[in-house]
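User: For a benchmark we're assembling, each entry needs the component sequences followed by a predicted structure for the full assembly. Here are entry 17's components. Please fill in the structure.
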Amino acid sequence: SAVISQKPSRDICQRGTSLTIQCQVDSQVTMMFWYRQQPGQSLTLIATANQGSEATYESGFVIDKFPISRPNLTFSTLTVSNLSPEDSSIYLCSVDGTGMGEQFFGPGTRLTVL
Amino acid sequence: DAKTTQPPSMDCAEGRAANLPCNHSTISGNEYVYWYRQIHSQGPQYIIHGLKNNETNEMASLIITEDRKSSTLILPHATLRDTAVYYCTPRRDDKIIFGKGTRLHILP
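Assistant: Structure for entry 17:
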């Protein structure tokens, strides 16, 4: 299974600022995914990021608010812009696994917006 | 969209088999069903997946009905470490969309 790390593991940010979350994988992967998990809720897919192409966003998520970079096959960043308290969530990076369709998840980044 | 329905919570005694049901009556014929679990404050963990046949691995067994409208995840000997939220989800368009899952409590 892929080993995924995220930075930072947690952060507290002020309203109106931005936070960039890094996701590093120990092997090359084609597809990377970013999810949001609001307090007490399930995971919601924000976007799919393939190397060399624009990220594909799910309904309700836009690039201006959640810009994503995917510079190579082992790394991606998610920026959460113009933060508001409603953005307080856990943000998780995920990658495709061994080709059987399963996904592996990072430990998450816990964001609190004051 | 293939939607799934799971009971919001279940209890199981430690050492007994935990049977977690999932209804996916709108699943397409070529969509696999995947099961994940999320232990508190951790990222989800892949458990098992299947299409038509029953599957077993070191973590669990998956029983899929012949009409593929439902499935059951079986943890054969539940331990306290199995306390988690369990998600049943199809994979469509190369991505996984999570439902609300079942919160499984293992009772000592």
